[in-house]
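Students often ask why inverse folding is considered easier than folding. One informal answer: many sequences map to the same fold, so there is more than one right answer. In these notes we will look at a single instance of the problem. The structure comes first.
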């Protein structure tokens, strides 16, 4: 039986890899990862890669906890008992039951597609930067959440044939200033519940489009008689839960196939119009933009908190440049770390604030910055005399606001990054846990 399960897992991963197509729009942070289709600027003559500095979000996953699935099914079951489902509603109930069965017991885990995403990123890294992998070892850091360890375990086989040692680190959440800094700053936790976020989200909650989408979804699924006995809040919660399930379905192709289900048997798209999905995505992304992105201030506390990760990147790059480093440092974390780090670095598409929350998508899109398996890479190149560094966001070349690029002299890039740390009043040798606790 165990052998059969292993064969099924391998087959599911292979199927997920073959099925990697561009995901549909309006999935926000639940957008499956797609490899870039553009080429890279040629490496300057004489330079070769010597080190890879990497931080990545976990791969495509199941829901992080029961809630959207069980909440939606509870309302659908109630309606079924009162004969309050439309024909479409009856089909939706069957889909949600199926998704609940697929999700059960797997919350927080990455999916087969998530594993395939991670392995493929590792393969492309190894192919691009083969010269860096000389057997000096790889440091791997994960958080206490299981999906980051699973992502690391899926990523490493992509470095096929690597002969060096792999050193794993996993700190307790209370000590993880580099990968879960957002949990350790009292001021940031207060910010998330404070007036900036609340005012922005209240304006969206009170926008007529929010109620209109909930009403439209409810009218497609439930009969008028059932809806008549419910408050608008019930319809709103249901539409949001259903959108979460709609979004996560695209992370489950391997599990759907392994369960013997047809791909369209978990399709919730008939419930939503394109306009509905656009607004649901807008609502979800607004919270991410305010809490994890540039928000109203590109150097606000929601960005400052990434200083420990930037300091770690500088220190590990310093060691590599001096010839004391590993072949690579690989960190596996969450969207809450990737987005602030991208903003603190000043990556243009990740660091433009919005005076009005209604216009945040003019410059910032969650699916471009923090899709599933999102990552930032610093690739260090040397020619025996000089050192250059190229930065990738989701494997796409980044040009920072310092001119030139995408290959930056290390001294120039280091000075820029040290300046970014200075702007948020952080030092390279800080006790970062203490710094996060006193951060304002």
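Output (designed amino acids):
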């Amino acid at each position: 039986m165990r052998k059969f399960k292993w064969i099924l897992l391998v087959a599911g991963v292979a199927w997920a890899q073959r099925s990697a197509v561009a995901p549909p729009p309006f999935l926000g942070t639940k957008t499956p990862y797609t490899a870039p289709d553009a080429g890279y600027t040629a490496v300057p003559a004489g330079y070769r890669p010597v080190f890879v500095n990497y931080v990545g979000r976990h791969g495509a996953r199941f829901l992080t906890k029961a809630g959207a699935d069980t909440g939606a099914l509870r309302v659908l079951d109630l309606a079924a008992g009162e004969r309050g489902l439309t024909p479409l509603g009856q089909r939706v109930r069957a889909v949600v039951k199926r998704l609940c069965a697929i999700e059960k017991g797997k919350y927080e885990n990455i999916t087969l597609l998530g594993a395939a995403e991670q392995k493929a990123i590792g393969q492309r890294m190894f192919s691009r930067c083969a010269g860096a992998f000389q057997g000096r070892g790889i440091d791997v850091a994960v958080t206490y959440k299981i999906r980051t360890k699973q992502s690391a375990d899926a990523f490493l086989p992509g470095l096929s044939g690597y002969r060096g040692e792999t050193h794993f680190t996993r700190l307790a959440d209370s000590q993880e200033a580099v990968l879960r800094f957002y949990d350790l700053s009292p001021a940031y936790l207060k910010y998330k519940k404070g007036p900036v976020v609340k005012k922005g989200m209240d304006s969206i909650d009170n926008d007529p489009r929010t109620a209109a989408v909930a009403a439209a979804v409810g009218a497609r699924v439930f009969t008028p008689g059932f809806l008549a006995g419910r408050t608008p809040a019930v319809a709103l919660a249901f539409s949001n839960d259903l959108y979460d399930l709609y979004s996560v379905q695209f992370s489950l192709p391997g599990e759907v196939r392994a369960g013997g289900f047809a791909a369209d048997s978990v399709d919730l798209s008939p419930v939503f119009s394109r306009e509905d999905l656009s607004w649901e995505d807008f609502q979800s992304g607004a919270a991410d933009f305010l809490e994890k992105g540039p928000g109203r201030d590109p150097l606000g506390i929601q960005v400052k908190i990434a200083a420990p990760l930037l300091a770690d990147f500088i220190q590990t790059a310093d060691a590599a440049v001096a010839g004391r480093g590993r072949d690579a440092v690989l960190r596996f974390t969450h969207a809450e770390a990737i987005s602030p780090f991208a903003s603190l670095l000043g990556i243009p598409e990740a660091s433009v604030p919005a005076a009005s929350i209604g216009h945040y998508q003019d410059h910032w899109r969650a699916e471009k910055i923090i899709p599933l398996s999102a990552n930032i890479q610093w690739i260090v190149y040397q020619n025996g005399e000089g050192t250059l560094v190229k930065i990738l966001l989701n494997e796409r070349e980044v040009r920072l606001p310092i001119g030139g690029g995408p290959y930056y002299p290390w001294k120039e890039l280091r000075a820029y990054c040290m300046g970014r740390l200075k702007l948020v009043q952080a030092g390279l040798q800080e006790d970062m846990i203490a710094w996060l606790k006193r951060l304002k």
